Fold this protein.
Amino acid sequence: MDLLLSDAEAGLRALLILGAAVVAGLVLHAVLFRIARTVVRRMPSVLVFDGAVLERARGPLRFILPLVAVYVAMPFAEGYMTSDVQTLLDGLLHGATVLAVAWLLVTLVMMAEDLIAQRYSIEEEDNLQARKIMTQVRILRRIAIIVIGVLSLGAVLMQYEPFRELGTGILASAGIIGIVIGVAAQRTLGNLIAGIQIAFTQPIRVDDVVIAEGEFGWVEEITLTYVVVRVWDQRRIVVPITQFVEKPFQNWTRTTSELLGTVFLYVDHTVPFDDLRTALGEIVEASDYYDGRVWRLHVTDTSEKTVELRALMSADSAPNLWELRCEVREKLIAYVQAHFPEALPRMRAEVRENGVEGGRSGRAGEREQGGEGGGGRLSSRLHLMEAGTRLRMQGAGAQA
């Protein structure tokens, strides 16, 4: 009975020592973060003390500081624990330490991404350099997290004898297993390699304007296996990343976001080109979507029915170009309607009447041939001359 009481008392003392260490670690965590928040409020312009970055570190440090305090208190508690309890506790502390360090490393990786995102914002107008950097950072962040997770899991499992023996056997047969895994996961490994390739060669970047699967949209997310494209109507297209390595696609913002667009007009041959060209210049230059680079009006084709006019204009981005084209198309049609309605496509008809006089022969006794002989016969011919066809405009979804 005395032995049991002494063991219980020793265990209670060890538990109190370790519990006090945990409480001390939590109190230290609370004090440190209170000080850090005060520093953030007093130094808001200093990037290192950014509040969002600080909040990311809050979670892992709440776990690491009590763990460090337990390690410090262990020498004082070991005298009250048996060897079996010490062995069990050492294993638990080892696993907890590995996981805590892995959590901290992942947090540091994400903090680094946040700091770089603040330095290179893709929300700015001229964001080409920022998109290059953020594409690489996001893919490398995913690779780093995967590597940290695999290594930490291996470090935890390898402290146990059965897993160490399994690991030794795997290393001994790594060649055969590598071949089997390579064949079974060929497509997955291909996607991973394509993701790493895109991170460095960058045929696409975050926020690039692309045509994927015949749809116009923006690159919203790039992972190691797929790309998410945000379509203009808020739909998302998930495309395997290998498609951007193996197949051709359109990237409208590969080097710059500036674009040229066209509007086609089909009018009568009588339209005054100079007046229409002047009207186009006034419409384009008055538009808020025009970037001031270039506008032109060309006669690009003609036929026996119509004249094809192409209005060329520029904008600093794809959305602005779309709005500019719609505005120019609408106002050009209104201008032609108001000032040169005769130049709109129309149908002309001309009717001609020819009278042919005729009568009977009048000779006595001669038999009439051919019936009545048709005095006052009327023949009419209708000649349709087409002056043009309907005004054809480029469809709303036509590509620039």
Summary: Strands lie at 209-212, 215-222, 226-231, 236-240, 250-251, 259-267, 295-302, 307-315, 347-356, 377-386.
